[in-house]
Amino acid sequence: MEYRVGIGYDIHRLVQERKLMLGGIEIPYIMGLQGHSDADVVLHAICDAILGAMGKGDIGDYFPITDPKYDNISSLELLKETLDLVKKNKYTIVNIDTTIIAEEPKLEPFKKQMVKKISATLNLTEEGVNIKATTNENIGSLGRREAIAAYAVVLLSK
After folding, report:
1. 119-143 pLDDT, tens per residue?
2. What is the CATH architecture of 3-157?
3. Which of 1, 33, 84, 143 lies at a CB distance of 3.0 to 4.6 Å from 138, suitable for a disulfide?
4. 132 membership: H or E segment, kind and range
């Protein structure tokens, strides 16, 4: 059996008058993430990790910001299209581990919902998806509450 590992990272600026989407769910908060799609950094990092594990480039190669069909699209749709590439290339997702970096809002109450949404979208068991949240200890743009970022690691098998 062949195993492949990929890592993904994404960061988006927090802005007024946008919904905050993280891990495929809406998080109640006074601001949201700026981006061409819904700017869900969790799902973007996961897509990048999957694409990286397959050696297939990055999210911008498949869902360019210059393409109007991705304007305000749900990142769950991007994740589904990424899963189609996984299947087409005869890989299986073994597990995903994700870390979200945000000073606010507190994400602990939402992690289980994110796991449920992501695992259902990718046809994985909930044990196959792990979500962690941490702060940046008030350091840098993340610490100043200007942005939210996420890292993801994925293991694929073939």
Report:
1. 999 999 999 999 999 999 999 999 9
2. 2-Layer Sandwich (3.30)
3. 143
4. strand 129-134
State which amino acid sits at residue 66.
T
Nearest to 44 by CA among 151, 135, 155, 146: 151
115, 72, 101, 30: CA torsion to nearest 10: -100
- Phi and psi at residue 74, to the nearest 5°: -65, 135
* One-character DSSP codes across 82-116: HHHHHHHTT-EEEEEEEEEE-SSS--GGGHHHHHH
Could you give the count of Cα atoms lying within 13 Å of 104 in the half-sphere of its Cβ? 10
In this prediction the pTM is: 0.97
Nearest by Cα to 122 from 4, 43, 62: 43
